[in-house]
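fyi for ur records
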Amino acid sequence: MRVCLDHIDSIEKHIADIESVVLKLVQPYLPQIELILSLPGIKDIFTAIAILGEIGMDMSVFLSDKHLCSWAGLTPQNNESAGKKKSVRVSRAGVCIKPLLVQCANAVIKSKECPYFKIRYDQIKKRRGHKKAIIAIAHKLLICIYHMLDKNEPFNDELYNTDSKPTPTYAPQITEEMAIRYLENLGYQIPDKRIHD
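which gave:
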């Protein structure tokens, strides 16, 4: 038992040594790391470092946010032959960044800072299930990261709080003429079509 505990202590010491070296190496990139840390669901500095290490800090290498998401494997495959779609599963690309963003997506749907992601997750989950909903949230997080790094701006939750409010249901106004026409279409005979004041 003592040998096992000593081994665990040794591993933890090596991890701490590596982390201290990493923190020294990323000093020039701290502004970009701070931008990523402003996103809800990403609180650990090493998560932000890993994301930045995967995608880099220069977003001009990607044509658009869609191109970045495709590169990261967070978009459906285009597997089509003879007009038939064989699969719409996400691609196998992004073997390192995709699991990382999925973990961030699982964290952000539990966060109360920005309810937009939780509301969007619930909407997609009802139709497509948990796995596809989490991939969709990871996709949205990566889009946010792209624009934050591209514009050099922190996450602005006000842009998403407006979207998170439930949309009011539209109640069409039905006039008397419309009601009479509807009843006639159903086969009813209306004796007097005049509209009384």
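The beta strands are 79-81, 84-87. thats all i got for now
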